[in-house]
Amino acid sequence: MPSVKRSFKYRFYPTDAQAVELSRTFGCVRKVYNLALAVRAEAWQTRRERMGYGQTSALLTAWKKTEELAFLAAVSSVPLQQALRHLQSAFTAFWEKRSQHPRFKSKRKSRASAEYTRSGFRYAEGRLQLAKMGEPLDIVWSRPLPEGAAPSTVTVSCDSAGRWYVSLLCEDTPAPMPATRNAIGIDAGLTALLTLSTGEKIPNPRHERKDRERLARAQRALSRKEKGSNNRTRARIRVARIHARIADRRRDFLHQLTTRLVRENQTLVIEDLTVTNMLRNHGLARAISDAAWRELRSMLEYKTAWYGRELITVDRWFPSSKLCSACGAIAGAMPLSVRAWTCEDCGTTHDRDGNAAVNLLAAGLAVAACGAGVRPHRESSSRSGRSVVKQESPPVSVGIPSRRGRGGSQVVHLNEG
After folding, report:
1. What is the mean pLDDT of the chain?
2. What is the spatial distance between Cα 405 and Cα 166, in angstroms, rounded to a whole number?
3. Per-residue pLDDT averaged across 131-149, rounded?
4. Are 288 and 275 in contact (CB under 8 A)?
5. 39 exposed, middle or buried (CB, 10 Å; 0-12, 13-18, 19+)?
6. Is residue 332 very low, low, confident or very high in pLDDT (cuts 50, 70, 90)?
7. Contacts 24+ apart (CB under 8 A), 248-254
8. Is the Cβ–Cβ distance between 326 and 405 less than 8 Å?
9. Looking at the annotation, which residues are catalytic?
10. Where are the domains of the chain?
């Protein structure tokens, strides 16, 4: 198994001096990022000039020598240079049309973090010391780093609930999972978070709904506090802690679920859901956000890549819910309120989600067998999986195996990417 870069995140408890120094560093990182972004945007708008990392790095040196920005020299230069590199990466993604134009960082809404490369920290025997800090960080080592690992970068952050974290990026070789020939189709939903082609339904834990009343009370209390007051600050932290509790429970559940699916199956087939578009449905947006389908897919992508499994993504226009898995006939319009339906051709009664999972598995196995209609779907999935996709070119016909009914086996057009 080839080595991969893995991030190991730990909670730590800074001293008062360390907290002040780190908070100052976060502010300087945000300031440098915003200054460089403003300069690069102005250069493009007025002179159509593309500035790069080297030019902004030279500007940073000049900024430190001015009276107005002399405070930038009081913190480690490493995270400031890293902020410029992150801005360069953001512009590169924008120019390649992979993301939107970089935005300015907000003190209230942006993530408070600073990244240190090897010249900005010292790590030895479980002790981590950052540049311009006299004492090592008091880290809770909840799990060991890989044996002999030497962190290449260290990222320190503080979330909105006031919790401090340090993330160490290391080279690691994941232990291989036992070989298996199992394959599974996975259909995502809201009533059941996942319905598997084996017939198993994994209930949706609805973490946000369980804490919704508690969150609403805390938000109402926050709205009554005077802006700028200490009471408002404390109320804001109470709201943030509830949000953090929801996110932590959701993430823990998804990690356990995805690890189990990857351990038990060699091939996993999922549907390519456009979550961004689905969130425009204001009646379901809150429930979809709570289900965290995008985070679940992301976990499946990198875990299948780590452990030598295969993830196949079926295009969202594939009629997995309306296709009869018994005879291959395609039903007519089927609104979301229809949770079970009977095929008019063979008379088989289907559970909507269970039928979709079976059809997704059949389509994925057809792709794995003959390779038709396969291409990398996006950068994140091209490393770990394959995708059945559509385009306007003539379709490639792929016969999907099915049980015999009156309609026989159905040929589904999975257009070539």
Report:
1. 87
2. 58
3. 92
4. yes
5. middle
6. confident
7. 249/205, 249/207, 250/205, 250/207, 250/208, 250/290, 250/292, 250/295, 251/295, 253/205, 253/207, 254/292, 254/295, 254/296, 254/299
8. yes
9. 187, 271, 353
10. 4-172, 178-417
